[in-house]
């Protein structure tokens, strides 16, 4: 049989064809090596491109969901919209208070139901047309009447009754009921003359024709999914032109690769998602021409307790441990959590100890418990509290529930977050001293057990906005799901009458100082309830090249983050460094050495071919 | 009987009826395989629908998490995605659309699934295709050499290196290459970009060169971790052949050792490698998620990961269908090619 196969002509006079794979391989390798010899290294283009334009390159990882401001909800996309379009108001980089944006001033009527905004007359769209109150009115009206246009920001207009533009500089919004968040409408205002041609808002992604008409500090000039987002400075921006000529968001899906790109000078800035790791930060701290910005962040990191999941119709569901309904138990658990150790060991110093619900950077709303109110770390007192509540230990040291069985809590954790796992292990250690068992349920997607209420405690965290309304609203009874089958806006099923009253009062209070005082009372109530225990405020840890960026605005200006600000301050304010950076010389060396490598490969391949040819000549004889 | 064989070994005229019979046998064999593939594809279509509905997580909740959304908005999302319909109706809608070539609209990107796939597929094929050609060629050449001079130092070194690289995690190797050849270590300068497929802004030939420049490190990573498999399979197959009588005959004819290897031994030993080639070809479409991530290559692997994390059901289903189709088509092709290479198969 084998001889028959052997006779099949594959060994016939097809010698040159059979060599094809090797030839193709060598050829391809040559093409690749030759490519290395071309002067394409992007590094020197960052600070100064070939045409002398100053380019600011930012490493990002998050994909764009949509470039339509009516659809986008991810941080990267909404940050790009901040740069492309003006909003009615902006936030002061110093302390996050509302300041003029497209609107220069605003006032509310005595009945609190009408808001009149004065629209600035010095803002032009990038196609030369004037931006007017009519554009703003059209944007809001579109969101109120077209379900597709309400996809991303519909909640901002759900309390609007009517929006009109009596003149090009006057915008009037009539509300159904008072709403204090009218200076925090994070809605990009789009040019009516461009967008009225859009047919289906639920499918239009605004990413096919460039440049995109806008009136923000930058104009979107190019986009390729998961490759780059490219913007050009708007030289006629009313607040003044950005200092860099171009801003490019480049994709680095792996954070270590992004850090490598920063070291090389291929990018000017790396934020990390959500932060650089402590190891990356400490490595970059020692690198030349790199500054690590380790500043207070806008997130809080908390331990949420299941208060017994329920729906607005009164139906209860889920299976949270009944012992957690006792406030003393919740307080005892939190008093056995050593927050100092969490900051030192888990966050390695890149966080601040948690106190109230809203992080300290939002100074007008920051609240912390008084000395008598504080649930300070005190394991002995925690054990006493549990004893008082009737949960005593048995002879084996296990604390028993009302049913006589040892208490063990399921703690829901995000498998993708190493902090959750590390803190979880500490909880196991600390609570075992109280006689309480802990099972960590680490899942890729926690939303199923979370929504079904089938957990006892859970790691929780939110990014807070300058206006606290949203993070407060997710703990109201109104946010509970309508029925157990529905999904509500609620975070962890908290429903407390006193908290709800405070929430409603702050929303109707238009005086900023009085409103802040009510918000603090609501935070105090939330703290006492013990369902939401803030353990830490993680820092924003990011880094940039000082040989490419000379200075950049943080928010808050004293100490704050650069990426993901409320406003366009960082990229708008960034000043390019005078020199093009040190990457130029290394990259030209790179090109030279690349050439040498290619030459060596070429010579080697040549020798290889000659030898093969000789062998072939022998065969033919 | 294969056409190759017919061309090279002219059969006597009397053998014609036998050949026709064999042709019919091959047709029957081929029809069976193709029919099986079509049934598999239909099964994939159905499985894809139900399989991904078992993933934990509510797409609407994931997409709206962390921002203010009213109950009306949530309902609008569900209505738009058809998630408010009973399961059987979602299924029939899905099947009806799929049969007309419409894979639906991605939840998170608000774009037709086919567009999203068409956007990323060429990128993946460029990366995995280039790597595939290189590692297959390298694996066969080195595997042949290793077997022919087996148990010598060269074989041990080559096989040892291949095995070592084969067992190295690709993302780790990729990161190492980035640090050494992109950033530069000591005297080694940063020659290559740290990630992505293009610098952006280039056109024409400059764009081609730019993409080739970005392609070098990910391709080297893939080739390094993949060629070992082909090498080992080729090597062991050739070792099996090496004791065969026909090789002794060839040598007795006075052929040079090199010729005996290339013309006689290797063609017969390649069958297992051909199987592997088709298996690998099927895999090239699915992308290589770890290498794509490390090198920020905008391909299907990364898209699949993003789709799964929502879960973006239409996108996940569409990608699953495309991946499965590639594997099924390649396996069917392998089945069809086999009888041509080895007449014992398909009789």
From TrEMBL, chain B:
One of its GO terms (biological process) is transmembrane transport. The chain crosses the membrane at residues 34-55, 125-148, 160-185, 205-225, 269-295, 315-341. It is a multi-pass membrane protein. Its main location: membrane. Residues 121-338 form the ABC transmembrane type-1 domain. GO terms for cellular component: plasma membrane. It is found in: Cell membrane. InterPro entries: BPD_transp_1_N, MetI-like, MetI-like_sf. Keywords: Cell membrane, Membrane, Transmembrane, Transmembrane helix, Transport. CDD domains: TM_PBP2. It holds the Pfam family BPD_transp_1. Belongs to the binding-protein-dependent transport system permease family. This is ABC transporter permease. It comes from Streptomyces pseudovenezuelae.
């Amino acid at each position: 049989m084998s001889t028959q196969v052997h006779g099949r002509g594959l060994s016939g006079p097809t010698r040159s064809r059979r060599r094809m794979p090797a030839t193709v391989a060598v050829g391809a390798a040559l093409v690749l090596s030759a490519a290395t010899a071309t002067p394409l290294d992007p590094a020197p283009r960052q600070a100064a491109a070939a045409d002398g334009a100053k380019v600011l390159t930012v490493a990002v990882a998050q994909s764009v969901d949509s470039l339509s401001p009516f659809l986008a909800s991810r941080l990267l996309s909404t940050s790009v919209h901040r740069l492309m379009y003006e909003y009615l108001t902006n936030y002061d980089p110093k302390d996050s208070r509302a300041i003029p944006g497209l609107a220069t001033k605003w006032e509310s009527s005595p009945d609190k139901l009408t808001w009149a905004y004065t629209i600035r007359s010095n803002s032009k769209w990038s196609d030369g047309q004037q931006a007017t109150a009519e554009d703003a009115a059209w944007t809001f009206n579109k969101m109120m009447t077209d379900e597709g246009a309400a996809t991303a920001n519909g909640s901002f207009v759900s309390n609007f009754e009517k929006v009109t533009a009596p003149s090009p500089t006057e915008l009037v919004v009539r509300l159904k009921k008072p709403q204090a968040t009218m200076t925090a409408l994070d809605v990009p205002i789009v040019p009516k003359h461009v967008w009225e041609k859009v047919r289906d808002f639920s499918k239009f992604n605004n990413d096919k024709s460039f440049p995109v008409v806008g009136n923000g500090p930058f104009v979107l000039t190019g986009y390729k999914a998961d490759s780059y987002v490219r913007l050009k400075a708007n030289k006629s921006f009313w607040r003044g032109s950005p200092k860099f000529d171009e801003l490019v968001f480049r994709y680095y899906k792996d954070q270590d690769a992004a850090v490598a790109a920063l070291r090389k000078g291929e990018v000017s800035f790396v934020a990390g998602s959500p932060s650089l790791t402590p190891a990356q930060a400490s490595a970059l701290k020692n690198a030349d021409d790199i500054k690590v910005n380790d500043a207070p962040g806008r997130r809080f990191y908390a331990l949420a307790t299941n208060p017994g999941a329920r729906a607005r119709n009164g139906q209860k569901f889920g299976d949270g441990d009944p012992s957690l309904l006792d406030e003393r138990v919740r307080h005892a658990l939190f008093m056995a959590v050593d927050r100092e150790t969490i900051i030192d060991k888990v966050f390695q110093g890149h966080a601040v100890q948690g106190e109230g619900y809203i992080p300290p950077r939002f100074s007008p709303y920051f609240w912390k418990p008084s000395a008598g109110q504080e649930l300070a770390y005190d394991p002995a007192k925690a054990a006493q509290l549990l004893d008082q509540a009737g949960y005593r230990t048995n002879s084996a040291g296990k604390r028993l529930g009302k049913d006589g069985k040892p208490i063990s809590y399921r703690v829901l954790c995000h498998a993708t977050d190493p902090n959750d796992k590390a803190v979880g292990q500490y909880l196991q250690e600390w609570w075992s001293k109280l006689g309480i068992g802990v099972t960590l349920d680490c899942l890729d997607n926690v939303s199923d057990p979370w929504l079904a209420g089938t957990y006892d405690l859970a790691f929780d965290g939110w990014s807070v906005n300058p206006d606290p309304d949203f993070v407060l609203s997710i703990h109201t009874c109104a946010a509970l799901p309508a029925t157990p089958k529905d999904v509500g806006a609620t975070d962890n099923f908290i429903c407390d009458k006193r908290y709800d009253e405070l929430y409603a009062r702050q929303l109707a209070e238009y005086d900023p100082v009085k409103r802040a005082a009510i918000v603090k009372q609501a935070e105090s109530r939330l703290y006492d309830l013990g369902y939401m225990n803030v353990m830490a405020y993680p820092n924003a840890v990011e880094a940039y090249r000082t040989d490419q960026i000379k200075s950049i605005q943080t928010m808050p200006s004293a100490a704050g983050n650069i990426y993901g600000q409320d406003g366009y301050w960082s990229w708008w304010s960034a000043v390019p460094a005078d020199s093009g950076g040190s990457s130029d010389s290394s990259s030209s060396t790179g090109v030279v050495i690349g050439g040498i490598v290619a030459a060596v490969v070429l010579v080697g391949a040549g020798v290889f071919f000659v030898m093969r040819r000789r062998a072939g000549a022998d065969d033919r004889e | 009987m294969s056409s190759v064989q017919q061309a090279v070994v002219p059969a006597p005229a009397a053998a014609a009826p036998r050949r026709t019979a064999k042709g019919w046998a091959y047709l029957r064999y081929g029809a069976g395989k193709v029919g099986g593939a079509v049934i598999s594809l239909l099964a994939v279509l159905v499985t894809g629908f139900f399989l991904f509905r078992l993933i934990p997580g509510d797409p609407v909740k994931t997409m709206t998490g962390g921002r203010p959304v009213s109950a009306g908005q949530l309902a609008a999302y569900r209505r738009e995605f058809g998630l408010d319909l009973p399961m059987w109706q979602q299924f029939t809608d899905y099947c009806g659309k799929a049969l007309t070539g419409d894979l639906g609209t991605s939840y998170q990107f608000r774009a037709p699934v086919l567009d999203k796939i068409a956007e990323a597929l060429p990128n993946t094929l460029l990366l995995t295709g280039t790597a595939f050609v290189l590692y297959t060629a390298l694996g066969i050449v080195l595997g042949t050499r290793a077997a022919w001079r087996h148990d010598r130092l060269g074989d041990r070194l080559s096989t040892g290196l291949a095995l070592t690289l084969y067992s190295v995690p690709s993302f780790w190797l990729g990161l190492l290459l980035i640090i050494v050849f992109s950033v530069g270590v000591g005297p080694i300068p940063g020659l290559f970009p740290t990630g992505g497929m293009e610098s952006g802004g280039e056109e024409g030939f400059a764009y081609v060169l730019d993409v080739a420049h970005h392609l070098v490190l990910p391709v080297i990573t893939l080739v390094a971790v993949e060629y070992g498999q082909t090498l080992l399979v080729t090597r062991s197959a050739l070792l099996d052949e090496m004791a065969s009588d026909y090789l002794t005959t060839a040598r007795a004819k006075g052929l040079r050792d090199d010729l005996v290897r290339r013309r006689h031994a290797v063609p017969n030993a390649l069958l297992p490698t051909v199987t592997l080639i088709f298996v690998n070809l099927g895999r090239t479409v699915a992308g290589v998620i770890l290498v794509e991530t490390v090198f920020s290559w905008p391909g299907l692997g990364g898209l699949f990961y993003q789709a799964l994390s929502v879960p973006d059901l239409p996108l996940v289903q569409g990608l699953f269908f495309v991946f499965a189709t590639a594997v099924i088509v390649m396996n069917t092709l392998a089945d069809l090619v086999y009888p041509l290479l080895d007449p014992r198969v398909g009789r």
